[in-house]
Design a protein that fits this description.
Helix content: 25-40%
CATH superfamily of the largest domain: von Willebrand factor, type A domain
Number of helices: 7
CATH topology of the largest domain: Rossmann fold
Distance between the termini: 41 Å
Number of strands: 13
Structural class: alpha/beta
Shape: globular
Strand order of the largest sheet: 1-12-3-4-11-2-13
CATH architecture of the largest domain: 3-Layer(aba) Sandwich
CATH class of the largest domain: Alpha Beta
Oligomer: single chain
């Protein structure tokens, strides 16, 4: 028997009722039985499982089995918006790693997936407009590398995330924002709860490379902004990794674990499944769902990445 890995999925869902189902409830609050979510399933080496079908996923709602009616890889619809922290705290190894990982991501992206690159300090600035010309994006990024972080500039990290959402003319379910930052935010005015809600409302997932490398013998404080980014990534179905070790200079020994983690994030961005599920009963605005993923091989380990909360999506 295949190993069943059970993951709790806390959902806030508004999901469309059929006319017949609507007639069966006198409640004025929106209820529905059909919902959509995104799930990435990763192997221990960071590669995504890409051959799963609806039969490999199971679900329970209200203690009763729900039907997974569709599970499809979502790659063709993705757009990736990269956010580069260009503030003074990113000087040194953090900046070198951020650029290296961004160039790696550009090289990994499928040709049809468009990318946009923005950088931020106390404001948001466009470096590369949304494009499928990855060579063009890499060339502009390479030129930008020579500038380095702006010394003594302040950081509007969370403002930048909120503003970045507005740069996309329309939202596609499964859009990705990838922030490369040390997590410092010393001058923001946006609530992180508002950011999470806006990301979920637009079905945009947040990924983060939290680059907190320090110089040898330097105090390395874990920044509260990084904790908020971790939480938002988990809530929106994204993921993150943390680099904190002290380094003197960036070499292949430093880059290798960061590149491995970056690759796993890429696989999660591009290897996610769009799931359609039908609950056995009409769900109220807040519903809890338990997802099960059956391992393709008995005892095979996997990491499952999914939104912890989904905002209402019914009309």
């Amino acid at each position: 028997m295949n190993t069943r890995l059970v993951c709790q999925l806390a959902l806030r869902a508004l999901l469309a009722l059929s006319p017949g189902a609507f007639a069966q409830t006198a409640s004025s609050s929106p209820q529905c039985q059909t919902l959509h979510t995104y799930v990435s399933v990763l192997k221990p080496d960071g590669h995504a499982f890409t051959s799963l079908t609806a039969a490999d996923f199971g679900a329970e709602a209200g203690g009763k089995r729900a039907q997974v009616t569709a599970a499809r890889l979502h790659v063709p619809d993705h757009r990736v918006l990269v956010l580069l922290d260009h503030s003074g705290s990113m000087q040194g190894p953090k900046w070198a790693v951020a650029i290296g990982l961004t160039r790696d991501l550009i090289a990994l992206l499928p040709p049809k997936v468009p990318i946009e690159i923005e950088w931020f300090d106390d404001g948001l600035h466009q470096l590369v407009p949304l494009t499928r010309d990855h060579r063009y994006a890499d060339a502009l990024l390479n030129t930008f590398l020579r500038a380095g972080p702006a010394p003594r500039s302040r950081t509007h990290l969370f403002n930048a995330i909120m503003e970045a959402l507005k740069t996309l003319p329309t939202h596609h379910p499964g859009d990705v924002i990838y922030a490369l930052t040390d997590g410092e935010d010393n001058d923001t005015f946006v609530k992180t709860t508002d950011i999470a809600a806006e990301l979920m409302r637009s079905s945009t997932r947040l990924f983060a490379a939290l680059l907190q490398y320090s110089e040898p013998n330097e105090m390395n404080e874990y920044l509260r902004g990084a904790q908020a980014l971790e939480r938002i990534a988990q809530e929106t179905g994204g993921d993150y990794f943390l680099g904190r070790e002290p380094v003197g200079e960036v070499d292949e020994e430093v880059l290798q674990p960061a590149r491995k983690a970056n690759f796993a994030l890429f696989e999660s961005m591009m290897g996610d499944y769009s799931l359609t599920l039908v609950s056995p009963m009409a769900l109220a605005k807040e519903g809890r769902l338990r997802l099960h993923v059956h391992a393709p091989k008995p005892g095979e380990k996997m990491k499952i990445v999914y939104p912890e909360e989904i905002l209402p999506s019914c009309p």
